[in-house]
Inverse folding.
């Protein structure tokens, strides 16, 4: 939470984004208190949604791992700005992170499991990346986006995908951090991403499991991808 507040204060003071359109900055300021992604990755989400709308890339906007919903709030506000209505689908347990495996280490090699085990002992409401489904629904509704276009799917992605996946996706944002969940998402959602659609992997840089799953999936399926660096951890590419 301290990092989120710091990101928000730094963004308001920082002139680094003075080249960014005013309405982009206004959306960033509105949603930064509801996301751990920080300004650069939030701007990437806004730009990705703007890109798929302006280029008529068909499909829903989908995020796996949403915490308080800040990134999809940014997507909703962008769609409102552009006068566009698309389905927004949020996949999450809405009860915190699923258990990591030995593959899930940070960039420096620290095992995620001890941290997960420690935080799992906390009371409901204080666990790793925990935000309830009602809270996330309220946050999305606060944007003014028509909620008939918003769908929240509760449960581990290994249990909810592919059954609740849309037929087509224009923008896919993956933020469940771990190897197994990220690979499962790619296997079931990437084939549904439209040509010229955008894929964002939030923790490709920080979590080795997310990187391994992404690299394995792309290599196994012979998919060329220019992994554009958003910031220290975020990466994005456009599907051919």
């Amino acid at each position: 939470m301290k990092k989120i507040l710091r990101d928000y204060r730094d963004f308001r003071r920082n002139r680094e984004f003075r080249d960014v359109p005013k309405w982009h900055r206004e959306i960033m300021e509105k949603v930064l208190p509801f996301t751990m992604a920080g300004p650069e990755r939030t701007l990437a989400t806004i730009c990705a949604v703007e890109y798929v709308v302006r280029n008529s890339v068909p499909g829903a906007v989908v995020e796996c791992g949403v915490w308080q919903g800040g990134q999809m709030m940014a997507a909703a506000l962008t769609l409102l700005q552009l006068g566009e209505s698309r389905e927004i689908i949020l996949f999450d347990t809405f009860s915190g992170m699923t258990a990591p495996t030995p593959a899930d280490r940070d960039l420096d090699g620290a095992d995620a499991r001890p941290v997960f085990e420690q935080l799992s002992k906390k009371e409901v409401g204080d666990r790793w990346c925990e935000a309830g489904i009602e809270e996330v629904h309220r946050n999305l509704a606060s944007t003014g986006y028509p909620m008939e276009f918003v769908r929240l799917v509760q449960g581990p992605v290994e249990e909810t995908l592919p059954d609740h996946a849309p037929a087509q996706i224009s923008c896919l944002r993956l933020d469940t951090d771990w190897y197994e969940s990220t690979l499962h998402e790619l296997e079931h959602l990437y084939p549904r991403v439209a040509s010229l659609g955008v894929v964002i992997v939030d923790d490709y840089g920080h979590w080795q499991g997310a990187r391994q799953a992404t690299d394995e999936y792309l290599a196994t399926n012979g998919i060329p991808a220019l992994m554009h660096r958003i910031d220290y951890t975020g990466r994005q590419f456009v599907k051919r």
Summary: The beta strands are 60-64, 88-92, 150-154, 169-174, 193-201, 228-229, 235-238.
